[in-house]
Amino acid sequence: MKKGRSSLEFERPPVVEAAASVVGPKEGEGPFRGMFDQVETDPMAGKPTWEAAESFMQKEACRLALEKGGLEKEEIRYLFAGDLLGQLIATSFGVKELEIPLFGLYGACSTIGEALSLGAMTVAAGYGERVLAVASSHFATAEKQFRFPLGYGNQRPFSATWTVTGSGAFVLTDSSAVLKPRDRKGSGQAVITGITTGKIEDMGVKDSMNMGAAMAPAAYSVISRNLMDFQREERDYDRIITGDLGVVGRTVLLDFMRASGRELSEIHMDCGVEIYDREAQDTHAGGSGCGCAAVTLAAVILEKVRSGEWKRILFVPTGALLSTVSFNEGQTIPGIAHGVVMEHRDL
Questions:
Q1: Domains and their CATH numbers in the chain
Q2: What are the contacts of 281-285 at 24+ separation with CB within 8 A?
Q3: Per-residue confidence at 248, pLDDT binned at 50, 70, 90?
Q4: In angstroms, rounded to a whole number, what is the distance separating the alpha carbons of residues 314 and 195?
Q5: Helix ranges (DSSP H) in 230-328
Q6: Residues 281-306: what's their mean pLDDT?
Q7: pLDDT for residue 188
Q8: CB of 337 within 8 A of CB of 318?
């Protein structure tokens, strides 16, 4: 199953049996309107705090994924989950009622890639027939923790991205145990055939309002390593999809790839670029956050793989590993990314 220095190829690829997306009102008004499973009209979701609202969205995403798969929570062996907040409070308060054994994860905005990778490894190794992978973020909780209170009304530079309010959840299942969900259209399924685990990349970026530049080197590293480990060319993928680079980070990534002799512009997609209408919704460089890649995968990408429109994709969520402590102490912003190879299979 080992491929090269950083990758695994699964002999029995886990199936993405079910997935669900829950988003806030801004995301529900964007280009993917009508594709999400649930759109909260109130960004606070009727809760007393922003953090409680994020927890609620994470719990709802898990509930909907189980419902769409026709599953009970007792059928899930492990839960891999994370968010952007200190001590993962959105996760711990969000999923505690599920009473599923939990691995709490922090990979910043790359967390859903980490969750899917570890979940796929667990299922492929036979340690659990079914696992649940989930990640969430919220614009207001992220601004409150990492930047400025919303009431301050600070001016954001054009390099800044807008943290997605939302959560995406995925049930990964051993292929021998897959049930056809009640709402599934078509005759295909998406399987995770391999992963490429990223390492920390740091090129000295210190601007917390330019996350794309901080994360692009990590995306470049994982994509390059994946192609090397699997002995593939970029055209062996219908799409190479990053999670959170935005317009600035995407430009940096494409420049890095060209310098190494690879042209990705025609097959590259970035969830942060696609999830908002930048001009109409005033999101500057695009979207980011744990929820950005997660909800885009659940609502948009997964169906294209299941239908066979895309036969094979490389999904690469990216994360900026900073905290208020490290930033205030003048530290750089390291980045990390995790690659998940997803392919179409006929039922």
A1: 12-177 (3.40.47.40), 188-346 (3.40.47.40)
A2: 281/26, 281/29, 281/30, 283/161, 283/162, 284/156, 284/157, 284/158, 284/159, 284/160, 284/161, 284/162, 284/246, 285/158, 285/159, 285/160, 285/161, 285/212, 285/246, 285/247, 285/248, 285/249
A3: very high
A4: 9
A5: 246-259, 271-274, 278-281, 290-296, 302-307, 324-328
A6: 95
A7: 83
A8: yes
